[in-house]
Amino acid sequence: MDLYILDPDINLQGVIDGYSSLRWRRRFFEPGEVELHCKASPENLTLLRPENIIHRLDRKEAAIIEGVSVEGEEITATGRMGSSMLDRRVITPTINFSGTAEAAMRKIVTENRPPSNLALGSAAGLAPTATFQATGKNVLTTCTALARSAPLGFRCRLDVPGKRWVFEVYDGTDRSVTQHDRPYVLFSDEFRNIVNPKYEINTTGAANYAYVAGQDSGENRVIVTVDQTGGAPLLELWVDARDLQQAEGQSLDDYKAQLTQRGVEKLAETARVENFSADAVDTANFAYLTDWELGDIVSFEKWGIRLDQRITEVEEVDEGGVMTITPVCGNPLPEALDLGSDT
């Protein structure tokens, strides 16, 4: 596989056509990661510099190199996908927003000093909504929190002919066995399309009902509740949202909607960890990128357990010309996505 190396202005610098290992990790809710191992030749050392871009013709994402190390005869380059550039901006001045989560992310990206070569793609018209207030928060962290609470994916797609990055919000397709509108996708022993399966569930710190406390104190404190129990046992969470203050001229209902959005985001952070991962065998029945993609909802079945959930990660590893595809279905990432307090 050829890897095209471009400079930050998206000008081709050269091609790497030989490497020992390439790890290409795609993520739905946040930037994916890349790790490349190749010969420490003068040509490769010149190409693999921080801020240069690793581009594959067969993927929408491209990676920005962030780290380079050389040991012996091998060079290792690491980085994140293009949407990591949002990590370099903070929200200022204050944004007060009520509308769709897609429109919110597009507004955040365009109104906070985006790079000159970052443009908005066409709006997809996705329905999930969000109401929030933000100041001084990291743009990437905010987009990730909005994406998780929606849930929606986002990416910065590389447009080489246009010499630009294109920000897009997108959704996957339900291909689980429970729907009947399209052919399903099932990873199971029956279809002989998975190896090395791994199932994990962890309810430590999980919550499904939030009390979100806003401005004032005592009996005057504005408190809203967010109920995501869905018939499950009650797991309560207290969210101190005093940093959200009712703006001048803002209605109480709109302010409460902002508090509700904060509660939705916090519950997304504390959702129970449940995921099913396996190395997928790329069969004619369910071929990667043809029958299923990152963000799609599919079914995994093993040990009498079936999980019908979204593919939140796909890790592609190419070692010696042998490609391994590992989809991760569910909620595998327990780390907090706290937007923090306004600064």
Automatic annotation (TrEMBL):
Superkingdom of source: Bacteria
Residue span(s) of domain Gp28/Gp37-like: 3-331
InterPro entries cross-referenced by the UniProt entry: Gp28/Gp37-like_dom (IPR029432)
Protein name as it appears in the record: Siphovirus ReqiPepy6 Gp37-like protein
Organism listed in the record: Caproicibacter fermentans
Organism taxonomic ancestry: Bacteria, Bacillati, Bacillota, Clostridia, Eubacteriales
